[in-house]
Amino acid sequence: MMLPPARTGPHFYKILLCDFQVISALETLESLANNNERENEEILSLQKTVERLEQEKQARQLQTAKFEEELDQVEETYKKDINELRLMVKTLMSENKTLSTTVSSLPNTVESPTTAAMHEEDVKLMFELKEMSHKQKEEIKALQKDVEQYACEVENLQNSIEKLIRQNEELLRKNASLQKQGRMIVEEKMEIIRRLEKTEEANIQLRRMLSDTDRACKDLQQASQLDDEPRFTLAELREVLQEKNVLKGRVMELEEELENLRPGRKEREMEDLLRFGKILPRFFFVRRVFIFHNFLLYGYSFFAIFHCSLTRFY
C-alpha cells in the first residue's frame, strides 16, 4: 500500500501515537501489578489479624467460661453459706423465742448475768451474719459486673472480626477486578504486537516494490541511453520518480518504526522516558526531523526530475 507524500506525516504521527499507547498500556499494567501486590499483602495482613482476633476470641471465651464456672461455684458456695446462716438465724430466733417465753413465764426475778451475756452474744452474732451477707452480696454484684464487661468485650471483638471479613471480601473483589483489567491489557498488547507484525510484512512488500521500481528506473535509463527518442514522457518519468521517493520515505518510516519497536531498544527507551518524562519533546523532535527529511527527499525528487528533463531536451 503506497501513501501519497501529503499523508506521510500524519501516518508517522499515528505510528508514534501507537507507540505511546503501548508505553501507556505497559505503565498501566505495571501500576496494576503493583496495586495487586500491595493489596495481596494487605489481604495477608488482614487474614493474620483475623486469625489473631479469632485466637484472642477463643482465649476470651475459654477465660469467660472458666470465670463463669468459678462464679457458679462461688454462688453455690455463697448460697450454701447463706442457707446455713439462715438456718442458724432461724435456730437462734427460735431459741431466743423459747427463752423469751420461758423468761416471761417465770416470776418477776432479777435476770441472771449468764442470760444477759447469751443474749448479747446472739445479737452480736446476728449483726456479724448480716454484715457477712451484705459483703457477699457486694462481691456477687462485682462478679456480675465483670461478667457483663467480658461479654461486651467479646461482642466488640465479634463485630471487629465481621468488619475485617467484609473488608477482606471487598479486597478480594477488587483483586479479581484488577486481574481482569490486567488480562485485558495483555490482550491489547498482543493485538498491538500482531499489528506490528502486519506492519513488518507491509514493509517487506514495500521493499519489494521499491526494488522493482529501482529496476524499472534502471531499465528506463538504459533504454533512454540506447535509444535517442524517449519512450516515456516527462510526466511519466516524474510520476515514477515521485512514486520511488514515496516508497523510499515509506520504507524509512517502517524501518524507523521497526527499530523503535524492537524489544531491547523499546525497553531502554521506555525506562529513559519513564525516568526523565521526555515523551512529548522526543515526539516533536522526531516530527521535526521527519519534516526536514521529507523536505530533503522532495527536493531531491524535484532535482532528479529537473535533471531528467534537461537530459531529455539536450
Which properties best describe this structure?
314 residues, mainly alpha, 5 helices, rod-shaped, protein transport, transport, transmembrane helix
How would you characterize the overall build of this protein?
- It comes from Oesophagostomum dentatum (Nodular worm).
- Pfam families: RH1, RILP.
- This is RH2 domain-containing protein.
- With 314 residues, the chain is mostly helical.
- The protein has one domain (8-104, 114-313).
- It has 5 helices and no strands.
- It has helices at residues 8-105, 113-226, 234-260, 263-276, 279-313.
- Helix 1 packs antiparallel against helix 2 (113-226), helix 1 (8-105) runs antiparallel to helix 5 (279-313) and helix 2 (113-226) runs antiparallel to helix 3 (234-260).
- The model is unreliable at 1-8, 273-286 and 309-314 (pLDDT under 50).
**Rg estimate, integer Å:** 51 Å
**Number of continuous helical runs:** 5
Number of domains: 1
**What kind of sheet is the major sheet?**
none
Strand proportion, as a percent range, falls in under 5%
Q: What does the overall shape look like?
A: rod-shaped
Distance between the termini: 36 Å
Number-wise, the strands total: 0
Find the structural class using helix and strand composition: mainly alpha
Name the poorly predicted regions.
Answer: 1-8, 273-286, 309-314
> Could you estimate the helical fraction of the residues in percent?
over 70%
**Arithmetic mean pLDDT:** 72
Report the order of strands and helices: HHHHH
